[in-house]
Amino acid sequence: MAANQLYYFHVLILLSAIFFIICTSANADCQYTVHVKTDPRRDAGTDSIISLSLYDNANFSGGGVVVKNLESWGAMGPGHDYFEGGNLDIFSGQAPCLAKPVCFMILKSDGTGNKPAVDEPPYSLTVYRNKCGNSKTMNISEDVPLPLSSVV
């Protein structure tokens, strides 16, 4: 009987350790959501690959969140054509949480594709901390220009 109790004790310890690892890993991720409004002018938009970088400091130390192809976070459904004239596109994905709130963002075009990227700031950026209920929203308007050409 003592051997069975010892076995169950070890199984309980193992399951507790696995649960702790899963919970610890889940708490290290944040859900990031970005809304990008493309200029409505005729022929505005791009087929270029757009990347997104988020940092919690202006000197880019300590890493950051880098999405090499923002379309991989696309939340508009299958077959949607992102970054086309007048579109408000939504992108959402999980990545490691930054130590502090986002204070610097770079949208960058690789210059490829049928149309070059048009200079248009992101509409808004929302960062949600995983399962905490806390959020920090940065609204970026026309008053804070972030032309793609300046960050390439």
Indicate the structural class. Answer: alpha+beta
Second rung of CATH, namely the architecture = Sandwich
Count of separate DSSP helical elements: 2
Order of helices and strands: HEEEEEEEH
- Give me the side-by-side strand order of the main sheet: 4-1-6-7
What is the H level of CATH, i.e. the homologous superfamily? PLAT/LH2 domain
Query: What ranges have pLDDT less than 50 throughout 5 or more consecutive residues?
Result: 3-27, 127-134, 141-152
Helical percent range?
A: 10-25%
CATH classification, class level: Mainly Beta
Q: How many strand units?
A: 7
Residue-averaged pLDDT: 67
The description of the largest β-sheet is: 4 strands, antiparallel
What portion of residues belong to β-strands? 25-35%
Count of all domains: 1
State the shape.
globular
Rg, rounded, reads 21 Å
CATH topology: Lipoxygenase-1
CA distance, first residue to last residue: 69 Å
Can you tell me about this structure?
This protein is α+β, with helices and mostly antiparallel strands and 152 residues long. The protein contains 2 helices and 7 strands. The protein has helices at residues 2-27, 148-151, and strands at residues 29-37, 50-55, 65-67, 88-96, 104-109, 122-129, 135-139. The chain has a 4-stranded antiparallel beta sheet with strand order 4-1-6-7. A 3-stranded antiparallel beta sheet has the order 3-2-5. The longest helix is centred in the N-terminal third of the chain and has 26 residues, at 2-27. The chain is globular. It starts with a helix and ends with a helix.
